[in-house]
Amino acid sequence: MDRRAFLLGVGAAGACGGLAGCADLVDGGSEGGVAERDPPDRPDELGPESVAEYVAAYEEVRAHNRHVAEGAVEVTVDAAAVFDHAAGDDHYATAQHAGSVYHENGDGTRSVGELYADPVPYLVTPDRTLRLDVRRRALERDGDSDDRDDGDEAVSADDRASPTLGVRLLNVTEEARELALTVTRRATGDDSATETEESVADLDVGIDPETAVEVRSITDVRGGYRVTARMEDDGVTGQGRIEVGLPSADRGANVDVVLDGNGVSTWHLPSFEGV
User: Which parts of the sequence are annotated with region: Disordered (predicted)?
Assistant: First the structure.
């Protein structure tokens, strides 16, 4: 969701060409407002670099056109994207946009809204571009102090990591899905020879068609974790599992879980600086 702070009496700024960071102004003699932009062409060859560039341009144009449709007289939008992972023709990326939007007030002054959107995932295939709206939820953890109890032992500030462990669940199908998400922490037994698992999170998540759910703040304790996602469809069970360490990727989610026509798959996510 965009965060907006409105300031009155802002004058007009200059315009520029191109996609990234461009300011478009309304023509003083025009009644049509800022012109909409055409979406970018999908690359002929899909790869990490071309997909990231395409998704950044797509996100920027989409944000620009949305504010134009709302009557903006000037729009400045910049977007960034990172390639996440791919399997066959399915390429996944994450984009984020920021900028400013100006509206004309009845008294002739202008108000400016500062835009800073949350990152959103994309699926790009040779014949499809899907932008998935994201619903975010944070797990409630007991205690707020640096030495709060986490499981059976007190954890010091030095043993905590930031960002915390997060999992993003993508449903790229046209049907709603229910998924069971389990996160366990791997620990060494008292004899230093056996490995045990401690449950950190166990929850059921419903995901609407062509949307995503991001589960944040699962844990901030440094260590190794196993993320398991299970889905049952018409009696057939699909499961994805992945090992991840903390600290990990510098972003809200460290792991992707993808639900598509082939079942469930899990992926590590790279860091994302955003805009």
Answer: 141-160
